[in-house]
Design brief:
The protein is α+β, with helices and mostly antiparallel strands. The protein is built from one helix and eleven strands. It has a six-stranded antiparallel β-sheet with strand order 2-1-11-10-7-8, with no helix packed on it. Strands 4-3-5-6-9 form a five-stranded mixed β-sheet, with no helix packed on it.
Length: about 160
């Protein structure tokens, strides 16, 4: 084999090795960060949903977004409610605001964020995908009251 080909293969191998170590370090860093999870509350203890849309932009016109996600599947976690903030992440990692103990959920799976008074969901390159009303999320998409968000085996409804 010519020396130039061996040199090219050596650099390709080093690049792949570098990318592998960066991925491992990123996963370790995500696991070691202090968890800031949202504590699920029983449905009876949740305050009424806030109007995130501002004056005159309530949920009645379809533009405003509710303030919580309620788990409707699986049966073991049904009824848990998560209050929404300006931005939160969903996944298995300790640094996610909503942690889901599900093998179909990636460490950093999805992001729910607010922009101009409207809530959006975005898949963060997860392995198994994020679904809104049974359609795969490929880009940030607006979510409205009554929409169902599926991450792994967990299905949540926006209220």
């Amino acid at each position: 084999m010519p020396d130039s080909l061996l040199t090219i293969l050596k650099f390709c191998f080093l690049a792949l090795l570098y990318l592998f170590f960066m991925r491992v370090l990123r996963a370790v860093w995500a696991e070691m960060r202090a968890p800031t999870t949202v504590t699920p509350m029983p449905a009876e203890a949740v305050r009424p949903a806030r109007n995130w849309g501002g004056a005159g932009r309530g949920a009645g016109n379809g533009k405003g977004a509710g303030g919580r996600l309620r788990v409707i599947e699986p049966a073991e976690t049904k009824g848990q409610v998560y209050e929404l903030a300006d931005e939160l992440t969903v996944g298995r990692a300790g640094g996610c605001q909503i942690t889901l103990d599900d093998t179909y959920v990636s460490q950093l799976h999805a992001r729910v964020f607010r922009r101009e008074g409207q809530l959006y969901v975005e898949d963060l390159g997860s392995t198994n995908g994020t679904y809104l009303n049974r359609k795969k999320v490929t880009a940030p998409i607006a979510i409205r009251k009554g929409d169902r968000l599926q991450i792994g085996k967990t299905v949540m409804e926006l209220q």
